[in-house]
Amino acid sequence: MIYDQFFADALKPLHDEQRYRVFIEIERTAGRCPLATWQSPTGPRTVALWCSNDYLGMSQHPDVVRAMTETAARTGIGAGGTRNIAGTNSPLVILERELADLHGKASALVFTSGYVSNQTGISTIARLIPDCLILSDELNHNSMIEGVRQSGVARKIWRHNDIVALERLMAAEPSRPKLILFESLYSMDGDVAPINRICDLAERFGAMTYCDEVHAVGMYGPRGAGVAARDGAMHRIDVIEGTLAKAFGCLGGYIASSGNLVDAVRSHAAGFIFTTALPPPLCAAATAAIRHLKASGDERRLQQRHAALLKQTLSRAGLPIMSTSTHIVPLMIGDAGLCKQASDLLLHDHGIYIQPINYPTVAKGTERLRITPTPYHDEALVLQLRDALLDVWQKLGLPLARTLAAAE
């Protein structure tokens, strides 16, 4: 039996459907955001990044870099093991206190990634609730879906952001313990959940709420606590989950909630208990980023300004962007092969990197380029991107949303 053939066979449909994922080797340089060096087949080239989840450029902020390097020089690099085995490093304790304060919760628990915090947090919480019924939005992230699957409890999927559908499912089992799972900001379409209306239903039917704020923490609210904070609903959410790897520019994930819930997850979650702790330098860097964004709204304001300029510019050019109220700008193509070709042309011909988004990240037929402007994507870069996209659209024969004449 030739086992390697099984793996070759698994790759073939990805190539056939033109959704095989190619990693582009890129080296970012501190202080040059959003520019980076692409290690192209013909040698190093400077490119502009338009698809990073380092939404505010905090990974390069001097305070964040300084906190990491100074802590590394003092403590070394690694955590030395799990928190049970090696002890809990002080920067991690400080980070969890900072996160609990950010979200107005009694306690917080840090995991090695946002994926793990969802996968482990949801599965553990649901298992600890007797006869729990999970109610999950149909567009929830894969990490949330895996958490639901691993919980082993009953689950029902409700139509995306459809409050009527959610109410119907809850009313069918009014007395059963329920856990509602949703995201505050959905990263592929850029839309926002009706958080207060979900909380109204949760209170009416006695359900718990679990809100993924991964793409919103650092970005929204007066201190960067997320969309729930912006909408005055943060105190109504039982569990807030977030990441340190996007707007905070570092690595790791977390949950924030009551002291008992966090302690129960800490004590029962295999994905936490048996995983090496986040290294002290990363914890110190994340704390520096959170503290800076709690005090400063400059990055958020400038980023929103550039996002609005980008949407207006691309829309006027007739490019088919999805309408969103957030910093995420999806540019629709609807074909995996054309989406990859568009990405390649932008990179090779124009020095612009935007990765193609295809199945299973989005449904087949909704392939897109996902654009995420930062505070550093100024008007000159926006106009450069517009012109490059129009050139690519013409070369590939892609349709515009309307004629340029009508857009004028």
In a few lines, what is going on in this structure?
With 408 residues, the chain is an alpha/beta fold. It has 16 helices and 14 strands. Helix 5 packs across helix 10.
> Main sheet?
7 strands, mixed
Radius of gyration: 22 Å
Instruction: Report the sheet-strand fraction.
Output: 15-25%
Compute the separation of the termini in Å.
Answer: 64 Å
**Shape call:** globular
| SSE pattern, N- to C-terminal | HEEEHHHEHEHEHEHEHEEHHHHEHEEEHH
In the predicted model, the low-confidence regions spanning at least 5 consecutive residues are 403-408
Q: Using DSSP, what is the number of strands? A: 14
Structural class: alpha/beta
Binned, the helix content reads 40-55%
Mean pLDDT: 95
Instruction: Give me the side-by-side strand order of the main sheet.
Output: 4-10-9-8-7-5-6
Q: What's the total helix number?
A: 16
Explain what the structure shows.
- By secondary structure, this protein is of the alpha/beta class.
- It is built from 16 helices and 14 strands.
- It has helices spanning 4-16, 62-75, 83-86, 90-103, 114-128, 142-151, 163-172, 195-205, 227-230, 259-268, 270-273, 280-295, 298-316, 336-350, 379-396, 404-407, and strands at residues 26-28, 35-40, 43-49, 107-111, 133-137, 154-158, 178-183, 208-212, 239-243, 253-257, 329-332, 352-353, 356-357, 368-371.
- Strands 4-10-9-8-7-5-6 form a seven-stranded mixed β-sheet, sandwiched between helices.
- Helix 5 packs parallel to helix 6 (142-151) and helix 7 (163-172) runs parallel beside helix 8 (195-205).
- The longest helix is centred in the last third of the chain and has 19 residues, at 298-316.
